[in-house]
Amino acid sequence: MPFLTQVPAWQALASHRDALSHVSIRALFARDPERAAKFSHEAAGLFVDYSKNLIDEGTIASLIALAREAGVGARRDAMFSGERINRTENRAVLHVALRDRSGQPRIVDGVDVAQQVAAVRARMRSFCDAVRGGAWRGHTGREITDVVNIGIGGSDLGPKMVCEALKPYAHARLSMHFVSNVDGADIAEVLKRLNPETTLFIVSSKTFTTRETLTNARAARAWLLASGEPEAAVAKHFVAVSTNAGAVAQFGIDTANMFAFWDWVGGRYSLWSAIGLPIAVQIGMDAFESLLDGAHAMDRHFAEAPLDSNLPVLLAMIGIWHQNFLGATSQLIAPYNHALHRLPAYLQQLDMESNGKSVTLDGERVDYATGPVIWGEPGTNGQHAFFQLLHQGTALIPADFILIMRPHHALDAHHDILVANCFAQTEALMNGSRSTDEPHRNFEGNRPTNTICLDVLDPVSLGALIALYEHKVFVQGVVWGINSFDQWGVELGKKLAVAIEQELAAPGPVESHDGSTNQLINRFKARRRAVA
Ligand code: F6P
User: Fold this and answer.
1) pLDDT tens-digit readout, 341-383
2) Which of 93, 490, 492, 498 to mutate to test the pocket of ligand 1 (most atoms within 8 A of CB)?
3) Of all atoms in ligand 1, which is nearest to the CA of residue 207?
4) Which of the residues are catalytic?
5) How far apart are CA 145 and CA 176, in angstroms?
6) N or C, fewer C-beta in 10 Å, the chain?
7) Selection from 259, 320, 312 nearest residue 122 by Cα
8) Claim: this prediction has a pTM higher than 0.85
9) Strand intervals (E) in 314-459
10) Angle separating helix axes 311-320 and 285-304, nearest 10 degrees
11) What residues form the catalytic site here (predicted)?
12) Ligand 1 centroid to 490 CA: how many Å?
């Protein structure tokens, strides 16, 4: 059995939870006028107020003790130094090297990865400058107007989220599109609106074996050629981002048009690498580098700040408090900013693919909860949909509210309404409101929230925000003793899908599965042609 639940800090937290069971967050505020300042912290341009959680100084002290007992500091240093901490894949985990702005060499297995990163980034710069400046043209000599990223998971969610968030910085001539789903409706809808002469495809896949991405990339190439363009046009309309040059060449993209990255970049941690190419094309390479600057500032904070004033550590440990001691099973992400509408989806992969694990690094089954379900929608939309359950439901759902001080638009009245709602929600969730004669109007309160404030949603602060969550997820994985950097759980379904695909193509009914799966496959085979 893993010993996490036996360590003194874990035991102390269990007793502490019992001691706090009759205390409300509201009462903790009444007791201590300094509470808000005490449980807030600023780093890398982000201000985080975590005072609206059921915590006191004792809670934080025990949580930090638990982080220490779990070896968070040593694991963090091991990650930064390029140790192969991703044991099941025998890989280093070095997304921090992609945004290391120190200019220092970083030798891993005898190779200076800092130099490799700089070389690819220089190629990204000339490519972005050429596309944005109009020097890179389509086969018929016209400027590029539309860029389509074809990728899925980490090769889609990060670039898409950032491109949405940083639209105010976008190049006026270029429209970005993202195709991920193997459902043909996805690519069909996008292509319908585009002109092959002015469209550039970025095929993004770490492995370049992902079924969805290759299927979509083939469809895109067929669409280009069907428009009458010759095979030679592919070189002007397709580039690739991958670690697998052989597969890129086999697909028919000249490796001169390929941007490399490395196995030490996990898919869900890859937007800082050439996978960020759509971002760099949209906002320009200087702004892309600002995104890296912001992430690097958070990296320095994470690497250097003491654990008890270290934002990723604090958010991680408060999450562990909710998940392992207060019985939460999910975590809401509520950006009060429409441009961040893809952030919950992005964080879903980051967190759930990283910490959705139930065996430890030593291969033992855990006897405690690990990663929460991550979900969310931007405010104020969520308020008119699922916030009812947050306020009066039976589940405890910790929530992160993310707020921008100064918007890019000039509609100040809108912004004040948005901000007022954000503050009102966290206040209402915490304080509740009592109604003795009408139980349906009773709000128990005591629902925990963090509020994360950015001055402006610019590349620097967005970089810091993303890195904050990356490191939070890392710290939680260390405490739970799991490998946050593999994703074996996605393999079984992929394997079965390949077999079923063949069965769908073969004639006759299928009998090799369970009754339900056989029934569904056979119904599909019978009905697909019958339905007009
Ligand atoms: O199937 C899961 C996964 O491997 C993710 O971890 C990854 O981000 C995604 O698929 C896409 O993989 P690739 O970039 O290799 O196409």
Assistant:
1) 999 999 999 999 999 999 999 999 999 999 999 999 999 999 9
2) 490
3) 15
4) 353, 384, 494
5) 9
6) C
7) 259
8) yes
9) 330-336, 373-376, 399-404, 449-454
10) 70
11) 353, 384, 494
12) 9
23 CA → ligand 1 middle, Å:
44
Q: What percent of the chain lies above the pLDDT cut of 70?
A: 99
Cα(39) to centroid(ligand 1), Å: 37
- Model confidence band, residue 474 (pLDDT cutoffs 50, 70, 90): very high
Cis check for the bond before 380: say yes or no (omega within 30 of 0): yes
pLDDT for the residue 532: 66
| pLDDT of res. 2 | 62
Q: How far is the CA of 207 from the centre of ligand 1 (A)?
A: 8
Cα–Cα distance, 487 to 208 (Å, whole number): 17
Q: Which atom of ligand 1 is nearest to the CA of 210?
A: 16
CA 35/CA 63 separation, integer angstroms:
18
212-235 core/surface letters (b: 16 or more CB in 10 A; e: else)? bbbebbebbbebbeeeebeeebbe
Q: If you take atom 2 of ligand 1, which residue's CA is the nearest one?
A: 490
End-to-end CA distance of the chain: 57
- Say which amino acid occupies 342: R
By alpha-carbon position, which residue is closest to atom 9 of ligand 1? 153
Instruction: Say yes or no to pLDDT of 311 above 70.
Output: yes
> Where do we find the tokens 């397709």?
238
- pLDDT (tens digit per residue) in 32-60: 999 999 999 999 999 999 999 999 999 99
pLDDT at 1 over 50: no
